[in-house]
Amino acid sequence: MLTVGVDLAAEAVRTAVAWVEWSDGAASVRDVVVYADDELIVEAIAQADKAGVDCPLGWPDRFVSFVSAHRVGDVEVPGGLGRDWRRDLALRVTDLAVHERTGLRPLSVSADRIAHPAMRCAALLSRLAVRTGGRVARDGTGRVVEVYPAASLKEWGLPYRGYKRTENAVARGKVVDALTAAAPWLDFGEHEAVCRRSDDATDAVVAALTARAAALGLATLPAPGQAASAVTEGWIAVPTSPLPMLPG
């Protein structure tokens, strides 16, 4: 099995892609590319058995309805215009589910800068649909699954905070050290160095590992009451089993 992880930013300069090959109870990082353009991402996902994308795959349904209504001047709002009402516009069903499970709160795709990568992601999914000849499912049931590396690391009992940005190389090194200790079956090869230099590369590898968990059914799925929203908003797959389960 080949899994791909994509740490998606609005531009290629902060985007990384990782390829992880799985066989005989082991895994190896086949390649990691930092500064990944659209063509590379689409082709990588098209060749993967499962791809984990660290970016929202959709917007909150209520936000989409709100903006559509506002466009034609027909917005209906509850009395008081309180914070809870705005939260319903800002957060997806999956964002609330991740927060309930892990205590982490994903960035709001409708009210934060993560919207810029999400716009790029929407275009990439469209190109991927043309490339593969079929619509890309956003709920994780198809080739692509949405992931959240910090949540994956936390669920696996690994360091998950403070490793972002160039100046946090020491903390990032501890994440890589913890990952290699917890997963001795994972061979980084020559690509360990780039993961220590770049948090984008590290997250791409974690995204590829999470894609494996999703492919094996070892990650969260929408409950019946969440399934309809997951189809349009996207669904973040959070690992439900420890790392040693991934090689099979």
TrEMBL record:
InterPro entries: DUF429
Pfam families: DUF429 (PF04250)
Protein name according to UniProt: DUF429 domain-containing protein
